[in-house]
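Continued from yesterday's entry.
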Amino acid sequence: MTARNIRRTTAKSRIAAVGAIAVAGAMLLTACGDQTKNNADDSASPKAGDGASAAASPADLLPSDIKAKGVIKVGSDIAYPPVEFKDDSGKVVGIDPDIAAALGKELGVEFQFENGTFDTLVTGLRAKRYNLVMSAMTDSKERQEGIDAETGKKVGEGVDFIDYFTAGVSIYTKKGDDQGIKTWADLCGKKIAVQRNTVSNDLAKAESKKCTGGKKIAIEAFDNDLEAQTRLRSGGADAGSSDFPVAAYAVKTSGGGKDFQIVGDQVEAAPYGIAVAKGNDKLTAAVKAAMDAIIKSGEYEKIIAKWGVEAGAVTEAKLNGGS
């Protein structure tokens, strides 16, 4: 499902953070501004991270309008297995949906996933189409501050992140045909297929600038990672790149494990974060408290183990821990 930029953006690796994914079945897993402030009754609530918020239950911290509706709308690019994807029956499944369901039990609400293109999710958050974004999105300073990683210009208000997982970025090729690719530098003069606005996309752009002798990296970016995989599978690219859980999952499942292979090491390890629009301090505090609660109870550990991604687990839900 990208780092999704930045790291789905500073070149977010989506290294070895998840490198120990167990192959013994557990590696089943291996999967890129203008928000209105809170209502008056919510604005005086303790901010996420304040000691006061720890005294209240997660459900007590929820904004009153969300309590009344009983629903939290989640924007997500639901084509990023095993982080979030649709199974054969059309049901939304994966690491993120399972974590969201556990959070919903703590908060007493239902998390409803709504599909969107990855690079439009933050815009949808600002437009209030979603309450949260949960889509293997890497927490980075650029995203927190609403800065475009490529231009360095301010493009929005930014978002707050509740960090819940750590992952790196991997390169993969057709199986048995790595063309000597082991590192990002080996991609000079070759073509790579990636998801648009992901850390992989950012890394490819940054590495291409380092290439010498006129041999740049040809980058073909797609709306989702599955399209990038199809391009590589068909021979239209020399390599692909995505977050390690996603790349590993593709290697294990595509063509019964006969299509792809991971080459080289993971890079740019960074946290995935649940994104909340700036100013929604009460919702941020509630979700952070709920995440800490499922980590403490062991429910989080069960979910991570189910998908075989224990190496990427966190021990606490940090607020804006990305760099």
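--- second protein ---
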Amino acid sequence: MKHADVEARALKEAARAGEAAPNGERGESGGWAHAPERSNMLALRFIVGMALVCGRHVTRLLLPPIALYFLLFAPAQRRHIKRYLFRAIGPQAGWVDGFRLLYAFASTLLDRVYFLRGRMDLFKVSIEGNVSIESEIAQGRGAFLLGAHVGSFEALGACKQQTHQRNLRLAMLMYPDNAQRITAILNAIAVPELRPHVIALGRPHSMLELRDWLDGGGLGGMLADRTLPGSEDQPAHQRGNNIVLPFLGQPAVFNDGPFRLAALLRRKVFFMAGLYGGGARYDVRFDPLADFGEAVCSPAEREMRIRAAVEAYVARLEALCRTYPYNWFNFHDFWLEDAA
């Protein structure tokens, strides 16, 4: 009865969060940070409620028709998925591959509910490379964790529950105007110790808040596979520079802002990914990318190190996309082909 009361309270909080969450801002055309959400509040509440009441196995029965719906009735996203799969898998990629990608995406969204509820007993999670992260935490130094729209960020919470690092403090650095509805609902149902701490980028106090967080031994997580929105009057460390690099055989634009931020604050940078392996399997990986905590170098050398770090990040991301092709959830014009 006590467990049922907790879940009922979570459902009520989710409903209130859905009503209070503002709609995504409609910014300039094509801007991912202000793109309106393709979501239905009633459907979101229903799926979250079903996940809490009926459990994971039953709720997963909804995922195939949801994936098929978006494959058929989201032409822009279908076009971007097709382009990506041709590059990650090859020209033999077809509708089945597009369905598998959307099904994996829907699976990770559903699993976010259970990760945020602390239900690690439902999953088989393997963790690699977390020793270096634990060493930074033990010595009271913060670090940057740079990921991508690959797999599940919430799966990283397994590191807190499955290792001895119960004091792992992770803040997500993000632009909060995107995907506000589903984020508000999921935050409402999360248990307090697993509710993600967010440091909003593009705010006047962002840098001070981030510096204090890192000085306190916290980790700053950021998804670095999208160019950062902003204007020319923003500081360079927030806006960054766009760099064109080969990615899956085609030039793509990446932003070095996250790496400049790490260099400015003199922190280590790790690559992070919570890869979905199908069913209840997740592979969480951490890999060192760069160490900006060393002695201050010349501006030219710093630029070279930032460039090298971006190239290492892109190489790591490309390798993961080829190994786990159905974990790429960047459903926008990544290679800017629509504009061309």
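Confidence is low (pLDDT under 50) at residues 13-34. The chain has 13 helices and nine strands. Will compare against the first tomorrow.
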